[in-house]
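Aggregate trends can hide what the representation actually does to any particular protein. The sequence in question and its structure tokens are set out directly beneath this paragraph.
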Amino acid sequence: MSFPTRVTLMDVARAAGVSRSTAARVLGGYGNVAADLRRSVLAAAAALGYRSNTLARSVSSGRSHTLGVVVSDIENPYFARAVRGISDVARKAEFDVILANTDEKIDAERAAVEVFLNKRVDGLIVAPSSGTESEHLRAVQTMARPLVLLDRSLPDLDCDWVGTDSYRAAVDVLSYLAKRGHQRIAFVTATSRSAMEIETGRRRPLSTIADRSRGIRDASTEHGVSYQLLPGAMSWQRTLEIVAAALSQPQRPTALIASSSGIALATFHTLRDAGLRIPDDVALVSLDDAQWMDVSAPRITAVTQPTYDLGTRAAEILIARIAGDGPAETNHILPVTFTERASVAVRR
């Protein structure tokens, strides 16, 4: 019985008419190669059926061809979609992905980063679980590993960040509600910081929460409407309790803004359980879209986040940094879409 001869890197180089080192750079995803030579190498590799040898590639390049990804919860649709984008880009570039969940716990994040560094990953994508603690991420940079922050930024850390303009999205949502006659608006969000701590900046929450809170506060002042911050929605049960308490106030909110799709769903249930109609009694808007919002009754107005694109962009930047390349800027802001549905009525 004969076995097919394994196609080597040198075979690809000969077929493409380039040196072995040039073929290695193209197929290994590192270094700079002219576009025409890159096309020739990739075409030759495809024609010959070349399959890379990860171990040999690691030895020759000094890289593991592995990316570490740290998010709060892969079951969260937001991060699940982003991780899918990361994985798709990594697979095409022949990188493996190792994933860790933190459940928004900084100790779990530190442990995951340490494990990934010990495994010698080539770079990390991290959605920080703290707005203030970043020493473990500085260690990533000290070890000369590229780092990309996903969704949440850290102003005191000089690295790439891929996210959206949370402040502007929040301003637009509150302005939308105010122009439709809503005078009492509450923002339900997941943070352990108190309303006073967030508004004074004494204890900095995650950047997305801080930016959204600031946007809603600024826009409420501009439009002359009442604004209430409802923090603490860290779980399904706590969100039910927080929203129920707000609805029991003598002057209940006429509109609720949810900071995530999970909080929006819990809020939706609480409104239904209280016998309140959306949008006639209370309006509901989410700053994070989800599939259920397009099939609920009524359908929920939301800000649609480019979650898959956030993941692909983060992976593209990280892989480029690993290769010693990448864009000149470090803040990479992707646009969101405001999806108007049927959960906001005009109040007279």
Remarks:
- The longest strand covers residues 66-71.
- The CA atoms of residues 10 and 256 lie 63 Å apart.
- Residues 9-60 form a domain with the 434 Repressor (Amino-terminal Domain) fold (CATH 1.10.260.40).
- The first helix runs from residue 9 to 16.
